Amino acid sequence: MKRWMIGIGVLLLAGCTPQFDAIEQGDTPQLLVYSQLDATLSFYTEDFKQQGQWKFEEPYSGMTLLEDDKILFYGYGLEQATVYDLTSGRPIGDLSVEEGTVSAYSDATGIYLANSVTNTVKRFTLDLQEAGSIQTGDYPMSMTSFDELLYVVNYQDSHVSVIEQSTFEEIEQFKVDRASQGIYATSDSLYIGGHGSGATVNSKTQLLDRSTGETTKTLDMPMMPIAFAEQGESLYALSHGSNQLYQLSEDMVTDVLTVASNPFTVGATDQALYVAGYDDDTLYKIVDMQVVDEVKTGDGPLQLLIREATK
């Protein structure tokens, strides 16, 4: 039986905010796995040597990496998102948000947090100052950016909000299927995944022309393709409803691998792909679309991030 997911400005941190052991960057990428059911962040090498683990008191539901080796954690029921310095293990600051935060994204223009209760995306500067809020469609969730445009998939709506980052204003809406989830951007296209809602299950990935928003192609990927990762010349889509990883080349499915149990997250380094199974508490290493290694994680691994190697 599948498990179900639990669902202004900078505040000075209180003394009760925990400090953790510093986990140094190495000369190879590091895998950061957040397990939701026991609220742990585990650090692994590409070959699954565990380098440390942080145990949180707050019920976080997601995370995103920031510049300068920092990481942000948020939770649906929390009124603050907390930023930590990975190098020192110290908390840096809290961002004031409303309950209902379901997603976070960061790039060179700032930090963006999507709220499914207020149907807004709130922006903060990289030095953690509030920099505005914008109304979106119903239940904004997946986000990415390209060429100074922020793309927001509205899960309970039927469009992607296109937001100009310089003005923080919506300039366009791209039509997509309702209950879409997951997004990946290239110079030409947007790849939009789909989860579905209730008895309706999404089983395809939509390709949109990034300049016009027109659907150029749909790819059958049953079922529930919700996460993407790129490695080399290929793009990979993870369908968590069917426990399958799809390989795409030139917008065609070229291979499929059944892996993990109820996976929500996929990541890639030059060496391998990595998929975490939420129900089997296992992180899988994949090379040439074959599982070559696996390791047990915390309880309910929900999200995987790649911490880049030191330069």
From TrEMBL:
SUPFAM superfamilies the record matches: C-terminal (heme d1) domain of cytochrome cd1-nitrite reductase
PROSITE patterns in the cross-refs: PROKAR_LIPOPROTEIN
Residues in coiled coil: none
Superkingdom of source: Bacteria
Protein's name in the database: Uncharacterized protein
Source organism of this protein record: Chryseomicrobium excrementi
